[in-house]
Amino acid sequence: MIDLSGKVALVTGASRGIGRAIALKLAAQGATVVAAARGENASGTAAAIAAAGGRAEAIGIDVTDAASLEKAPAGIVQRHGRLDIVVSNAGITRDQLVIRMKREDWDAVLATNLTASFTLTQSALRPMLKQRGGRIIVVSSVVGQMGNAGQANYAASKAGLIGFAKALAREVASRGITVNVIAPGLVDTDMTRAVADKAQIDWAAQIPLGRLGTVDDVAAATCFLASDEAAYITGHVLAVNGGMYM
Question: Under CATH, which architecture does the 8-238 domain have?
Fold first, then answer.
């Protein structure tokens, strides 16, 4: 069993869906989890972890606010003594065909999905470099690998995360810090459940394993990359997509 005892993890976008599942899984494996989301939205995740006997703190972060992102890692180190794992998961969509896409929707998606990961990671590197170790995991998407009509902004942001992680992995490997990417495929979340049953069946037909992924599928892969067992893996894109894109 993966043991993250003594590790401190920060997860953004931890209020629901994939981010919440990742936070719960890291805590179940022994990590102290700092669950981050807008306002008090992550409080439910922290409460669920505590109710299960884990250790957690909820913090409010707007990932488009560079100042709050820059301060968060130092604050975590001050309160918990260290920062070992950062999972940059927060993201949004603003779907539209390119010819109709508003510039503000392009900018919002890139700012939230890509630039925020840069800002957070840059700040988190400072304590990790001092510790001479750490795990940085960014959550991309199958859309960043294969594209999808109507999601040029989202695809660009998620593809950008892959390039960012690969470059950073080369920069910090000598300090014992690994940088990897999780690329989920179609995952069963509140958003996909809101889509008609027929659409879900059509989606599943495109996936060799014959089903949508679960948030726990993504959380398990993330937990592995955060562990000592993955110490020799860096600059890697771990696809959790049921074979949808190979």
Answer: 3-Layer(aba) Sandwich (3.40)
The sign of the torsion formed by the CA atoms of 159, 26, 208, 90 equals: negative
Give residue limits of the domains in the chain. Answer: 8-238
CA distance 125 to 27: 22
162-179 confidence digits (pLDDT tens): 999 999 999 999 999 999
Rg of the chain over all Cα atoms, to the nearest angstrom = 17
| 35 touches 26 (CB < 8 A) | no
Asked about 154 being catalytic, the answer comes back as yes
The one catalytic residue in 106, 154, 164, 224 is 154
Residue corresponding to tokens 């629901």: 16
Show the tokens assigned to 142. 């199958």
Amino acid identity, position 121:
T
pLDDT (tens digit, 9 = 90+) per residue, 188-241? 887 666 555 666 667 778 899 998 999 999 999 999 999 999 999 999 999 999
> Could you give the dihedral angle defined by the CA atoms of residues 184, 188, 191 and 196, in that order, rounded to the nearest 10 degrees?
130
CB 172 within 8 A of CB 129: yes
